[in-house]
Amino acid sequence: MSQDQAASVVRITDVAALAGVSIGTASKALNDTGQLRDETRARVREAAQKLGFVMDARGRALSSGRSYTVGMITTDSFGRFTIPVMLGAEDVLSAGQLAVLMCDTRDDSVREQHYIRSLTSRRVDGIIVTGRSSDPRPPIDVAIPVVYAFTPSTDPSDVSISLDDARGAEILADHLLSLGRSKVAYVSGPRRHAAASSRASAAAAHLGAALEGDPLYGDWSEQWGRQSVDLLLRRSPDLDAIACGSDQIARGVCDRLRELGKSVPGDIAVTGFDDWNVMALASRPPLTTVNLRLEELGRLAGQALLELIASGRPASLAIEPTLVIRASTIGS
Amino acid sequence: MSQDQAASVVRITDVAALAGVSIGTASKALNDTGQLRDETRARVREAAQKLGFVMDARGRALSSGRSYTVGMITTDSFGRFTIPVMLGAEDVLSAGQLAVLMCDTRDDSVREQHYIRSLTSRRVDGIIVTGRSSDPRPPIDVAIPVVYAFTPSTDPSDVSISLDDARGAEILADHLLSLGRSKVAYVSGPRRHAAASSRASAAAAHLGAALEGDPLYGDWSEQWGRQSVDLLLRRSPDLDAIACGSDQIARGVCDRLRELGKSVPGDIAVTGFDDWNVMALASRPPLTTVNLRLEELGRLAGQALLELIASGRPASLAIEPTLVIRASTIGS
DNA sequence: GAAAAAGCGGAATACGTTTTCTGGACTCAA
DNA sequence: TTGAGTCCAGAAAACGTATTCCGCTTTTTC
Q1: CA angle B72, B297, B165 (to 5 degrees)
Q2: Mind listing the pLDDT tens digit for each residue in B234-243?
Q3: Domains and CATH numbers, chain B
Q4: What is the DSSP letter of A209?
Q5: Whether the predicted pLDDT of B248 surpasses 90
Q6: Residues at the strand C interface (Cβ < 7 Å)
Q7: Is B192 helix (H, G, I), strand (E, B) or coil?
């Protein structure tokens, strides 16, 4: 509407013609490469501006050998954990002029193969792989740069940006200890999940004598949180803290404690894990927990991929969660 | 590893050479076009198979004029509503061999422009636009097929696949009426949200004489749900149902009712809206609500886009939610 | 048995860039 | 004035595919 655009897309040929140069020169001017007089560059840029030229990425991809596109493969249907990761990654990648192709495998290896084929065909510059859990997964078999985010690769020579679950549990344990709690129970998710067991054992090790009984394993639900309170109080009536493997469990714990007339944190302090707002803030009282910094994790994964594409050699690393203190451990 | 691949990517030239045909013929064989003997097609395909040939999408895009790629623009950072929409859309699009570029504008028009430019440059075949709310938004200005999903366009000549909020409210109202409830209150979200007000007014209209007092507007939180119960019971102590504008509000309502010793649904039936599992299933009791069928919405948007790309003329439509009955209206 | 038709595959061109190579114009010193 | 050296810009090749002719071979038809 604004220009005489749409008549037929503007090509670099048109820009070159208007600027009175060859298309090679126009290309150099627009990409800041080659040797050109400043005056020439300016003239070309002006022409491009005037015509509303946007470079055709197809031609560029073919010619330059780089597609300026990366794939993002998730097994998780963009669940609670992968979304922040993807946002972070997408943020740094798109700032680097890279577009991101989304591929949701739904944990189906047939779909995964389909997507890998599609990405290969599109000659993406690299791939970020992420997934539902922090359990390691077998690597994908492609000949281009790959970074694993949140869900690390089982191959240590791959670049994986993961989460330091154990450290998060330690931070919370330290927090409870610093508050003088000395009879702390631990309630976690399913034992088979790396996240559940690594958090539980790291917390147990760090709590030392302050740990009251073995960690309890159940599932990641409020229901289990409520249920665990009854088990715990029967086992140790004089408990003064319950550390949970997730905010969801912690919320259930708080609910049940309130029903039993126990004050949180007065009688018993409660901690969560994840800083999932829907749970942590809606809980009564709001939960002290650790923030997983997943968006930061995604951002680092994006940066690592950029390095890898630029033929650097980034290192794998694990992100340390940060403590978030709310009313479930420190009364208002 | 498996093949002698990676030595240098296999091109159609290599396939043609191995099959003993020209590259034009190879192209026809692989794309099922042109006139070729079956035997020739088979020979080419076999060669492609043997070499592990995957077509270079860049060359194809350039030559065929179609990129087999679409953009998905969201303003919502992939929130609770847009994710199912995107999954549904991505599902049908990738089945149609289209790859999906993800673009999260974070409600920033500068970012939106950036992405539109990027998509234009990549010559995507079409764009799906979605967003945080069901409030209409101004259309984007591009010369390619666009479908609006969940968040409709303000321009009625655009193709929008939206949600029939009013119908969902009616379905729930009908359900409550059919259970014989005759003093029903309505608690909704912020009045300025189309979703809040359209649900409330549709429910009010449909409930007729069974509506007890004007709908209450607050925000989409459990806190507000709890708070509203007190307001409501003070206003009408003999209420027998509370219909809520969201599951989150409904969960708060249930919690507060339980605290007050009211039985749900014995004394008061409660309905939600959204069928957000985290709320609807974790609520005590689990919530009767309507499922928004967002994934279906996304799927329809994807199909509409495919039609539009194939130069069809799909119609806008609004998806009708479906009733999900749980214990908050029908005691076990 | 010859002419027309149908079936088949190849050569060439197009798609829109980037990039290398080459040569012209200018400057400067001898 | 000529030679070397520098700066700039154009011509052309390359990227990997799809597709439009066109001509050759084979089959069909009278």
Answers
A1: 120
A2: 999 999 999 9
A3: 3-64 (1.10.260.40), 69-163+293-320 (3.40.50.2300), 165-292 (3.40.50.2300)
A4: G
A5: yes
A6: A 9, 11-13, 23-24, 27-28, 30-31, 33-34, 53, 55-56, 58-60, 62-64; B 20-25, 34-37, 39-40, 59, 62-63, 65
A7: coil
